[in-house]
Amino acid sequence: MKTVLITGCSSGFGLEIARYFLARDWSVVATMRTPDTSVLPASGRLRILPLDVTRADSIREAVEAAGPIDVLVNNAGFGVASPAEFTPIATVREVFETNTFGTIALTQAVLPQFRERKGGVVVNVTSSVTLKPLPLLSAYRASKAAVNAFTESIAVELEPFGVRARLVLPGRAPDTRFGENARPHLHGLDHEAYADIVKQVFAGLQDTSSPITHAQDVAEAVWRAATDPSCPMRIPAGADAEAWAAETR
After folding, report:
1. What's the domain count of the chain?
2. Which residue, 172, 169, 174, is CA-closest to 249?
3. How far is CA 29 from CA 40, 181, 194, in A?
4. Cβ neighbours of residue 48 closer than 8 Å, sequence gap 6 or more
5. CA triplet 130, 101, 229: central angle to 5 degrees?
6. What percent of the chain is predicted at pLDDT more than 70?
7. Does residue 179 have a pLDDT over 70?
8. Closest-CA residue to 126 (of 109, 105, 101, 143)
9. For residue 45, what are the domain limits?
10. Residues 6+ away with beta carbon under 8 Å from 207
């Protein structure tokens, strides 16, 4: 039986990814900053561990407790929506600590076992906003674009050891807590100079008539990245993400 370790499983994409792998008879290590056993069905193949990806001691303890794994899914992250000039540098550091440095640190922690075993998969969940520039999302987009570059480089670096690395790029997902989690990090949205841009961006985010991404789309894309060696490096997840990817191609 294969084992997957997934970060950010308390809600949204991470929760659905954990459910998806459980339903396919994998052993699942679901990690959360504050463990909640009620969000996932009881199973002998499920372990829920505490993990804060911004803390080195938390990463070390979680990896030790998880034991050997076959797939790492770096999903934990949060959003920032603010004009660049009003985004506090402390907020920029915070989003990079979680979205970028947390992903890199956890990947570093599991790579020794993958390399020694000559097998394993790293799946990093970033965002389709990295495919084209969008206003108000500069810090968030930069944090995810850095993970894209990191993943593409380690994919080449680790290939001689039989280790794969892949990217999953979700689109806009109104049915997750992304907006709720981003709310504490909104700055400068009420400034009159940006009123038109803010109105336009948030209207687009709230438009349910346009194609969107559902958590199931992301779970399916992560499953493909984890189990299909022939899949592409970047896998868009959701109708909107697929449309954006087609435009960039």
Report:
1. 1
2. 169
3. 11, 23, 43
4. 9, 30, 31, 32, 35, 36, 37, 40
5. 60
6. 91
7. no
8. 143
9. 3-248
10. none
Q: Phi/psi at 220 (nearest 5 deg)?
A: -65, -40
The amino acid occupying position 22 is L
- Residue 240's DSSP bridge partners are none
169: which residues sit within 8 A by CB, 6+ positions away?
126, 127, 128, 130, 131, 234, 235, 236, 237, 241, 245
Measured between alpha carbons, how far is 101 from 40 in angstroms, rounded to an integer?
Answer: 27
- Active-site residues, by number, are 140
- Among residues 184, 207, 223, the alpha carbon closest in space to that of 78 is found at 184
How many residues are listed for the chain in this entry?
249
Question: Which of these, 67, 70, 78, lies nearest to 12 by C-alpha position?
Answer: 78
**The two structure tokens encoding residue 145:** 């674009």
Is residue 94 predicted with pLDDT exceeding 70? yes
CATH number at residue 69: 3.40.50.720
Nearest residue to 175 via CA among 28, 2, 50, 15:
15
Residue with the two structure tokens 């499953």? 223
188-237, pLDDT tens digit by residue? 677 788 888 778 777 766 666 678 899 999 999 999 999 999 999 999 99
